[in-house]
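Methods — Computational structure assignment.
A single polypeptide chain was analysed. Its primary sequence is given first, followed by the predicted tertiary structure written as structure tokens.
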Amino acid sequence: MIPLKDQEAIRVKFAQELLGPVKIDYFTQKELDIVVPGRQPCAYCKPTREMLQELAALSDLISLRVHNLEEERAEAAKFGVERIPGIVLRGRDSAGFKFYGMPGGTEFASFLDTIVDISRNEVLFSEESVKSLGKLKEDVRVRVFVAPTCPYCPVMARAAFQMALINPHVKAEVVEANEFPELAKRYNVTAVPLTVIGDRILIPGAVPEKALVEQVLKAVQSPAAQPSDVRGPSSPQAAEAEARREPPPAGEPGRGSGLILP
């Protein structure tokens, strides 16, 4: 699944950057040789499992458990997993971060960086943002819809996971929109990234860290809150146009945060 030369590069990355254990719980379905009426086949479950198995083999600090969603409902409820393929990432003391779908394309590098973030318990947000998120006392779900060809999606996905790392009241999940069309249709996803906060605030495109944190707090404080002060694309069409732009140039050498937003 992962080319051998890339596996070696990832092995080196993990050896240099991982500090603590990372647990991966993967929810899938049992593979059958026959078609069962009413049972929706999971096209990406097998390749996602193979990818995770290869990743887990690249470091002793990464462990993988595979679950059958149909047979392990209690375990799925424990992690709040509702669909497959479903990936839950956990550190030694951190809450679970969910990724629905196969983290491929532009999402793959960000997925690896999130594994490192969790392993190191490393917060990349500013002190101001960390302090603001510390005020959050209620659970709020931050769901980011992404696609494997979107250059801005990894930034918003990693930002959501960072907020969950800072405060476990943030329930972060990333959804590969193409793999879950019914869910994408429910939220009228016409362009990505689209961030949905508490089912109350929708933010198209990439927005600055400070604005994202403000909207998370606003979603909890006021059910009628609207993202009028979010500095991002003002429409799905604008978000789509932004997604087609070339990504910003890389920053200084070293392990970048990936959180420098436009």
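Note: The two ends are 33 Å apart (CA to CA).
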